[in-house]
Amino acid sequence: MNTIRIEGTTVQDWIKTYPLINDLIRTKEVFWSNPKYELFQTGIEKTRFNEKDVKDAEERLKRFAPYIAKVFPETKKLNGIIESPIIKIPSMQQHLEQIHGLTSSGQFLLKCDSHIPIAGSIKARGGIYEVLKHAENLAIQHQLLTLQDDYSMIDSEKFRNFFSQYSIAVGSTGNLALSVGIICSKMGFNVTVHMSADAKKWKKDFLKSKRATVIEYKGDYSNAVEEGRKYASNKPNCYFIDDENSHDLFLGYAVAASRLQQQLKDMSIRVDGNHPLFVYLPCGVGGGPGGIAFGLKLIYQDHVHCFLAEPTHCPSMLIGLITGLHDKVSVKDFGIDSITVADGLAVGKPSGFVGQNIESLLSGCYTVNDNHLYQLLSALIDSENMSLEPSAVASVPGPIRLLKEKEGQEYLRKHCLTDKLENATHVMWGTGGSMVPKEIMEEYYKKGLEV
Ligand SMILES: *Cc1c(COP(=O)(O)O)cnc(C)c1O
């Protein structure tokens, strides 16, 4: 491996410059605070997106709300807005604080995208949004729809026939395909899903039951996306949802921030200079967590601190950020296998534009090993009766890691947060889970008790 060069530099030299890479190669759990983190006012200037972009996505979702409420009755309560609950988790908090000898660490909240309507994962934000945006563009172009219409009229044979002339393709480890597959099947689009060999069988079976075409590839996720991209470019009327490059996905995710703001207000939770907000987001290619972090920074600026969580065997965003190579580097270049139970995070290569756009706004990253994911999964079921998938529980150790690890404590000191922790709110973003079949969740649970 000594002779392998990554962007012209040997692995040995990369390690010399960034010693943390050595720990990543040995798949040790690490905590990294971002040396490029900046105050909001300067950091925000380095991004290509702004408030208007997020607002535009939010308005589009509102236009579609009457349609969503009509075709997905489970969204009626929220008038067709696809949003998840947020809950206090006092028993889990007590459990974690006890194990780790912590007191007065603030309040732990779990954002339950595991139980978001329609698709049971964070992908119900970005994935559904991008399909809706594409559908709106097509319908407007063909003069079937205007921005002023009541979009519930989209629930008709006329629209389903219209959309059936078009197809949508997506590369996915699973959850993105579920979201895209469900909404496409509802609207009438044909959908082709390009999946890597390690995608879970139940996800493939579910998609087939929704009449999606599932194409499997031997290689990894990046390979499946690559193949999907090729496939779509050769087909007329085929639109490719590009998880590694999509601005629409990113903005669809970013809308979560204003929703969270309202939920915190409703809970009378303050976020300001004396009441910091910490948010922990499981990260795959980065669109989901990056989009949400971006949206939160726009709202709370320097009062919110966003951390990404990755599996020890797949620290793709972290390696991209440390080296500054972003999508030009895969964890495999460093000999890391990217094999993990956290299938939603099992991508070797991060999105390029996400890392570049949020690198001055992110507070840091940490990695979690699979055994810890299993343990946390079981503990969350035992303490709160909440079933999350392995990827999603990567958010759960966030507060502990921040408060216990040396780099975390330095971050807190540097930003004068140490004496404000009692007033802090820690949001663990539980990114998925309710679609996982019961037997499989049961296996995860047992495994968590054993390890
Ligand atoms: C996709 C996914 C993520 C991460 O989102 P990215 O956009 O890939 O970074 C996290 N958790 C779950 C459960 C997911 O499905």
Structure report:
It is a single chain. The chain is an alpha/beta fold. It has two domains: 5-50 and 75-118 and 250-450, Rossmann fold (3-Layer(aba) Sandwich); 122-247, Rossmann fold (3-Layer(aba) Sandwich), CATH 3.40.50. It contains 19 helices and 13 strands. The strands form three sheets. A seven-stranded mixed sheet has the order 3-12-11-10-13-5-4, with helices on both faces. Strand 6, helix 8 (175-187) and strand 7 (190-196) form a beta-alpha-beta unit. Helix 6 (123-141) crosses helix 11. It is globular. The relative contact order is 0.16. The structure holds pyridoxal-5'-phosphate (PLP). The site of pyridoxal-5'-phosphate has 19 residues, from helix 13. Pyridoxal-5'-phosphate (PLP) binds at residues 121-123, 175, 282-289, 344-345, 389, 391-392, 431-432.
Name a few traits of the molecule.
single chain; 451 residues; alpha/beta; Rossmann fold; 7-stranded mixed β-sheet; 4-stranded parallel β-sheet; 19 helices; 13 strands; 45% helix; globular; binds pyridoxal-5'-phosphate; EC 4.3.1.18; D_Ser_am_lyase
